[in-house]
């Protein structure tokens, strides 16, 4: 059977370049079952090459876009602990909500534009991007109200008046960033669907460098304070939008997909709106689930310790957790593009192969990260604290962190596959069932009805002793 296949020589040829093998050849070739292991290795290398060409640049974009806010908080931290607390709670409670909505809605662009690109319906892609920007701007207008009135909202969730005031000041300075995000997210997905990722990486790195300089000038030199830091972040995001927009309009690589502004963007907006809503719900259900766990932990005995334990785990683990998450989101974006492109081109077998290979890649990477976390859990804790009691407490939680990191290598990839296939509505129901009908109840049972409650009490005593030692050191210090 294998010798009779007409495409086998071109795929097996040792001197044939992977870039010379087309998806059409692979799709036809995958119809045959009896294929040697050597051929599968070449197919693995062919798909891996495409995945890494996409995901490598996307990971860079995600990291440097994330670092815009990270650098802003670094400079805000030098203004004072109150300003940092206000900016941090606004970033998590207010800005996190907007990010979830915007990024979720943008996944609809990945689905439709990716499949249109695979089907070679290039002119439709520009119209889809414009339609998405219109809907995103409408969502940004609605979300600007929570930004403006974030002070009362933060007080409603238990924040002090002083922290709420600082959070409101910071959030109001980020309203302009919200509208920049409404334009940038669809454009990024528009370019990703065409496999145009390297220019986005160059733009992200360049804007990050400019952002560091601008934030330093605004905060340290001109001393415009917390509001100035927020405005600097908004300004940097608008630089990102302008650079991406100029590339889309003037790049020869987009001349077939962007043919100018069109009134067709207002046509058939309702079906697309339903897809964006499903996309936003899919992602927001994940974000709100973690926020719900924090709220539930506040109802536990030793509520302060429970919440502080989450903070301790975040401070010690979020650094390498975030790097792992950016990596996985990059792979998920690549999987979404690959699946949508191949489905649009009528290559279901290649799409299935892509799903298998990207999951194998993410599982291998997550396994390596888990091993590193488990082996060096004490050393990693010492990077952030020198208190032996805290190191011991965090070490006990490290196995749970390792499990979370490993599962984190699977879930984002499957979400990316769902986005590429247009299954956002289905995944929204899955998230609702698994997170809220299964996850939260199990968390409540473990926290309120099992011996884990005793572990909280023991942790309370350890952290209380550590806190007393810190207070004594502060009193004794000049």
From TrEMBL:
<dbReference type="Pfam" id="PF01554">
    <property type="entry name" value="MatE"/>
</dbReference>
<dbReference type="GO" id="GO:1903415">
    <property type="term" value="P:flavonoid transport from endoplasmic reticulum to plant-type vacuole"/>
</dbReference>
<dbReference type="InterPro" id="IPR002528">
    <property type="entry name" value="MATE_fam"/>
</dbReference>
<dbReference type="GO" id="GO:0009705">
    <property type="term" value="C:plant-type vacuole membrane"/>
</dbReference>
<feature type="transmembrane region" description="Helical">
    <location>
        <begin position="353"/>
        <end position="376"/>
    </location>
</feature>
<protein>
    <recommendedName>
        <fullName>Protein DETOXIFICATION</fullName>
    </recommendedName>
</protein>
<keyword id="KW-0812">Transmembrane</keyword>
<keyword id="KW-0472">Membrane</keyword>
<dbReference type="GO" id="GO:0005774">
    <property type="term" value="C:vacuolar membrane"/>
</dbReference>
<dbReference type="InterPro" id="IPR045069">
    <property type="entry name" value="MATE_euk"/>
</dbReference>
<keyword id="KW-1133">Transmembrane helix</keyword>
<dbReference type="GO" id="GO:0022857">
    <property type="term" value="F:transmembrane transporter activity"/>
</dbReference>
<dbReference type="GO" id="GO:0042910">
    <property type="term" value="F:xenobiotic transmembrane transporter activity"/>
</dbReference>
<feature type="transmembrane region" description="Helical">
    <location>
        <begin position="131"/>
        <end position="149"/>
    </location>
</feature>
<dbReference type="GO" id="GO:0140968">
    <property type="term" value="F:polyspecific organic cation:proton antiporter activity"/>
</dbReference>
<feature type="transmembrane region" description="Helical">
    <location>
        <begin position="275"/>
        <end position="300"/>
    </location>
</feature>
<comment type="similarity">
    <text>Belongs to the multi antimicrobial extrusion (MATE) (TC 2.A.66.1) family.</text>
</comment>
<dbReference type="GO" id="GO:0010231">
    <property type="term" value="P:maintenance of seed dormancy"/>
</dbReference>
<feature type="transmembrane region" description="Helical">
    <location>
        <begin position="50"/>
        <end position="76"/>
    </location>
</feature>
<dbReference type="GO" id="GO:0010023">
    <property type="term" value="P:proanthocyanidin biosynthetic process"/>
</dbReference>
<feature type="transmembrane region" description="Helical">
    <location>
        <begin position="235"/>
        <end position="254"/>
    </location>
</feature>
<dbReference type="GO" id="GO:1990961">
    <property type="term" value="P:xenobiotic detoxification by transmembrane export across the plasma membrane"/>
</dbReference>
<feature type="transmembrane region" description="Helical">
    <location>
        <begin position="426"/>
        <end position="448"/>
    </location>
</feature>
<feature type="transmembrane region" description="Helical">
    <location>
        <begin position="199"/>
        <end position="219"/>
    </location>
</feature>
<feature type="transmembrane region" description="Helical">
    <location>
        <begin position="96"/>
        <end position="119"/>
    </location>
</feature>
């Amino acid at each position: 059977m294998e010798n009779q296949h007409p495409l086998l020589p071109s795929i097996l040829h040792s001197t044939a370049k992977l870039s010379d093998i087309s998806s059409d050849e692979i799709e036809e070739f995958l119809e045959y079952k009896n294929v040697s292991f050597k051929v599968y290795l070449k197919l693995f290398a062919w798909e891996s090459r495409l995945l890494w060409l996409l995901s490598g640049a996307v990971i860079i974009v995600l990291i440097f876009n994330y670092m815009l806010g990270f650098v802003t908080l670094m400079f805000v931290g030098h203004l004072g602990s109150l300003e940092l607390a206000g900016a941090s709670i606004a970033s998590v409670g207010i800005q996190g909500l907007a990010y979830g909505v915007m990024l979720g809605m943008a996944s609809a662009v990945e689905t439709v534009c990716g499949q249109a690109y695979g089907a070679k319906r290039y002119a439709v892609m520009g119209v889809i991007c414009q339609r998405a920007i219109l809907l995103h701007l409408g969502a940004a207008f609605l979300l600007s109200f929570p930004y403006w009135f974030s002070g009362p909202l933060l007080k409603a969730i238990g924040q002090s008046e002083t922290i709420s005031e600082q959070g409101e000041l910071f959030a109001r300075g980020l309203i302009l960033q919200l509208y920049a995000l409404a334009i940038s997210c669809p454009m990024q997905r528009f370019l990703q669907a065409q496999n145009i990722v390297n220019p986005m990486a160059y733009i992200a790195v360049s804007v990050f460098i400019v952002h560091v300089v601008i934030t330093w000038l605004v905060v340290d030199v001109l001393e415009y304070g917390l509001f100035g830091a927020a405005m600097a972040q908004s300004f940097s995001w608008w630089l990102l939008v302008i650079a991406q927009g100029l590339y889309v309009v003037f790049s020869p690589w987009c001349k077939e997909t962007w043919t100018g502004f069109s009134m067709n963007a207002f046509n058939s907006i309702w079906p697309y709106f339903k897809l964006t809503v499903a996309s936003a719900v899919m992602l927001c259900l994940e974000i709100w689930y973690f926020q719900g766990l924090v709220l539930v932990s506040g109802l536990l005995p030793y509520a302060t310790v429970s919440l502080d334990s989450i903070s301790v785990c975040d401070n010690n683990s979020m650094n390498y957790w975030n790097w792992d998450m950016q990596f996985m989101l990059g792979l998920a974006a690549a999987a979404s593009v690959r699946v949508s492109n191949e489905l649009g081109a009528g290559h279901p077998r290649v799409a299935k192969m892509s799903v298998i290979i990207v999951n194998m890649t993410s599982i291998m990477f997550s396994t390596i990260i888990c091993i590193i976390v488990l082996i060096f859990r004490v050393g990693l804790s010492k990077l952030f604290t020198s208190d032996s009691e805290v190191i011991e407490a965090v070490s006990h939680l490290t196995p749970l962190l390792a499990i979370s990191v490993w599962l984190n290598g699977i879930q984002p990839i499957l979400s990316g596959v769902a986005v590429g296939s247009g299954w956002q509505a289905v995944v929204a129901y899955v998230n609702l069932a698994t997170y809220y009908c299964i996850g939260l109840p199990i968390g409540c049972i473990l926290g309120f009805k099992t011996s884990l409650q005793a572990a909280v009490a023991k942790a309370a005593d350890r952290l209380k002793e550590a806190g007393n030692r810190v207070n004594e050191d502060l009193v004794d210090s000049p």
